[in-house]
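Notes to self after the Tuesday call (sharing in case useful).
The group wants a holo model before anyone commits to mutagenesis around the pocket. I volunteered. Ligand is nicotinamide-adenine-dinucleotide. Logging inputs and output together so the record is complete.
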Amino acid sequence: MNGGRLAGKVVVVTGAARGQGAAEAAALEREGATVVATDVNSGEGVRRLDVTLADDWADLADHLRDAYGAVHGLVNNAGITWRARLDEVTAEDMSCVHAVNVNGPLLGIQHLAPLMPPGSSVVNVGSSAALTAHYPVAYTTSKWALRGLSKTAALELGPRGIRVNTIHPGFIETEMTASAAPAFRESNIRETPLGRVGTVDEVTPLVVFLLCDDSSFITGAEIPVDGGLTSHGGVKSVSDALLDGAGR
Ligand SMILES: NC(=O)c1ccc[n+]([C@@H]2O[C@H](COP(=O)([O-])OP(=O)(O)OC[C@H]3O[C@@H](n4cnc5c(N)ncnc54)[C@H](O)[C@@H]3O)[C@@H](O)[C@H]2O)c1
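Result:
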């Protein structure tokens, strides 16, 4: 598409074989970007890249340098969860989840930032779990760590004109959330002011906005896209109880 908000820009998306990553890649393409969709599971139009492997990132950087000469956007979307609780999680579980959710974005920024001209943008995909307590401890700690990485990267890359922002999805219908117990979905809906779960198409407009020049003075920011889940600090049940006729 000519004339889209991302026309002429080359954007890399990780974890783009399915879920939010696939939707983001499609939306970015609709806005005119040349999208390099990557995933540990290769698929049609998806280049194989395991975000935990520095060699994979080095190969991708070589390819981008040869093919395009520059990269203007990176969406660090790939992520995994592991639902072990505090009393059962192992050091290996922690390392495995952090390798994908924290080291992956770090390696991506380290390898692609040198190819980014001023005006480029990185979007890190955090989670509502990064804004609250959340029961899967390996996942929660990894997403909190990603917030720190995002802030540091925004600080260090800002002088080069590269922006780094973080989005925090709440419960979004994908294969990741489909693998959770039904009670997880139901309790999320109960705690979400908008009273429902979200779709991948409600996340992608925010990613497009943060990658394009409409957000040219926004960096180091964190934006929830969660139906209000993390906005109320746990008081929704109090509000709901009083609405249910228990008085004021
Ligand atoms: N779905 C939600 O409700 C939700 C909520 C908050 C945050 N998130 C975050 O959004 C992002 C996308 O999640 P999703 O729901 O689309 O999940 P998903 O499981 O449907 O997709 C994740 C993708 O990442 C890929 N991936 C996993 N490990 C990888 C690796 N080492 N290297 C490259 N790719 C790898 C998978 O193959 C898969 O295609 C993740 O970072 C996730 O933590 C999801």
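Two things stood out.
The chain has one domain: 10-246.
The longest helix spans residues 91-112.
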